[in-house]
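Record type: monomer structure entry
Structure origin: computed from sequence
Chain ID: A
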Amino acid sequence: MLHDDDAGAIGPLLADPGILAARRHVEASDGATVARQVAISQVPAPTGAEERRATRIADLFREAGLRHVGIDGAGNALGWYGDAGPGPGEGCVVLSAHLDTVFGPEVDVTVRQDGGRLQGPGVSDNARGLAALVAVAEALRAGRIALQRSVLFAATVGEEGAGDLRGVRHLLGTVRPAAFIALDGAGLSRVVHRALGSRRYRVTFRGPGGHSWAAFGVANPASAVGHAIGLLAERPTSHTPRTTCAVVGLGGGTGLNSIPVEAWLDLDLRSESAAALAQRDREVHRALATARDAENRSRTPGSPPLGYEARLLGERPSGETAVTDPLIRAALVATRELGVEPELAGASTDASAAIALGIPATALGAGGRAGDTHLASEWYENGEGPLGIVRALLVTVAIAGLAAGGRP
């Protein structure tokens, strides 16, 4: 296993016969991996409805030779490499990728190819991570690599949006790994070690409503929403640490001649600092109260006031794994050994749940290039695709530790 003073052990791993065989397998099977990525992407997996994709990944885990494959109580697909089974899992290494996408069931998830570019909703985030997850399992078997720690391969539900990290939170309630590695989307340079905290709200203003002419002058929830959005837009963005508040949805009303009884807006607050996130949260609530009070002051005398409710839809933790931790050092060294300068980064991923529990964790791209993430026009190009899988393999083996030879 990798110790604090020997992150340079990544170099010798590159010359290990088992790792060399595993790398050759990754490179030789690159076309099959990309085809698998396309097939996975075309299995719909909206957050909360990941069952079909989980079943498919479980089948691929079995084909890759993983043991004790199954679906847990949250819907995560799990499989083990090594001697451990579905017991406590103390001290294992978790290698994960999330199953769900941000797209609803009505979205066409067909993947189209234009030259070297694949285009389709979720083709990178996170069909690429899932394809890489299976490819690492295949490579370990192809290289006959025996490890000191068992590796739990996990395809998790509920990573996106309202999923609120549901799958990984459940998983980490059943195992206590020594390290956690998430494969999320494309790329080869980023090493995510900071958890991007967030709070998501549905804010609903409610008033008496009425006819747009006859009742004009009553407190109008739609006007309060507009005032609130204006106040929030005027707030400066904090850059140290970067802290944001985005309006990500709004709605309300029943017709063109009716003042609405209610109107709503959705807010997404984010920061890498728990303290800064809490401060922005307080500022948001002050702005909402100001918008409410202003609308009530301007209403027709004697008419009912409006109020608002801010319902918390989800909350994700902030935090970080230290750059000096062996896991992060291994990821940085592996990236450099593959000829790429690493970039330390923060993001909201499954690794955030592990970081919040004090478990060393990182999120890595799975190779290739991508763009338009979370849009229907999302695309993926496979340049350096195999290197992303090799990096994941190297980091996993470095932390799990090579054992004496022989098939596990």
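Annotation 1: The chain has two domains: 7-195+319-400, 197-316.
Annotation 2: The domain at 197-316 is CATH 3.30.70.360 (Alpha-Beta Plaits).
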